[in-house]
Design brief:
The protein is α+β, with helices and mostly antiparallel strands. It has twelve helices and ten strands. It has a six-stranded antiparallel sheet, covered by helices on one side. A four-stranded antiparallel sheet has the order 3-8-5-6. It is globular and about 50 Å long.
Length: 302
């Protein structure tokens, strides 16, 4: 049995999980385990911002018009919460298992300062969602972090230092400058992240794209260009996808009636809601619980 599968089995035992797919917080703050033992065909979901590592198994993602492979040899940085189409290649014998780190800006800034400042970061910059190959050092540090999180005692004693090493190795990678830029005030990444946060808090209200551009302190054309570069879609489509994801969350996890869920996320036309939901998730609202990533929708839509 591979080391990754041994880690997966130890994780299920320690955290007492029995669902076929899910996301749970680890013993180290800001780090989540995710897993799936069931295959999921290409289906829509909204990824939170953070850094994703797959220890076992593989996914195929679609960001905008770009398709990419996401597996144990590559990792992702999601600069801002982003709609993706994902396929999960998993089974009981070959599960998808990994870590998702929700980054803390102060930790990243302190690490960059200890490295000697921004000039110490690689001169490459990735945008949006782009897989980058793991170095041997980064791969080893991720495995050490995962191992430490299988014990409350280890997590308390060395978890934060193991996480710090992972972040340090990420900063040394081609994703490093992108991660740092996302944590800086007044960068395009930070401005779009603030707009995305606003949309996720205000999705039930009428949102004018022009007001979002004003909020970002960009011209309309510059805002549209940066927004699509980082999220893979237009502001209008992003707002719609957030509303639909929230609606699925309400239907599946809060047991809301379809009409109530549609109204709570800002739809005033129920027929339009049904059409948009079916187009986006490939199932009707009443079939929401059977759609792709509905079981983990609460995590990704928060």
């Amino acid at each position: 049995m591979s080391e990754a599968l041994q880690l997966y089995r130890a994780f299920r035992k320690e955290y007492g999980v029995c669902d076929k797919q899910g996301v749970v917080p680890s013993y180290v703050e800001g780090v989540n385990f995710f897993w799936s033992v069931k295959p999921v065909d290409f289906s829509a979901m909204v990824y939170p911002s953070g850094i994703g590592f797959i220890l076992n198994g593989a996914k195929i993602g679609v960001f905008g018009e770009q398709q990419f492979n996401y597996d144990s040899e590559h990792f992702l940085i999601v600069t801002v919460s982003t709609p993706l189409i994902c396929q999960t290649l998993a089974s009981e014998s070959e599960p998808v298992f990994g870590l998702f780190i929700q980054t803390n800006s102060s930790d990243v800034k302190h690490l960059v300062a200890s490295m000697g400042g921004e000039s110490a970061l690689p001169n490459t910059e990735t945008r949006g969602v782009e897989p980058v190959a793991l170095s041997a050092e980064l791969s080893d540090s991720v495995v050490r972090l995962a191992n430490s999180m299988l014990s409350k005692q280890d997590s308390a004693a060395i978890g934060e230092s193991q996480l710090r090493e992972v972040l340090y190795r990420v900063l040394q990678s081609p994703h490093g400058r992108t991660l740092h830029q996302a944590m800086q005030v007044n960068t395009p990444e930070n401005k779009i992240a603030l707009v995305v946060d606003y949309i996720k808090q205000s999705y039930s209200q009428r949102i004018e794209v022009s007001s979002l551009a004003d909020m970002s302190n960009m011209s309309a054309s510059h805002f549209h260009r940066e927004f699509k570069l980082l999220t893979g879609t237009s502001p209008i489509q992003f707002i719609k996808q957030i509303r639909l994801s929230k609606a699925r969350n309400l239907i599946v996890h809060d047991c809301k009636q379809v009409t109530v869920a549609a109204d709570e996320v800002g739809y005033r036309n129920l027929s339009q809601f049904h059409r948009d939901f079916k187009t986006h998730f490939k199932v009707t609202p009443r079939q929401a619980s059977t759609s792709g990533y509905a079981e983990i929708d609460r995590f990704v839509s928060d």
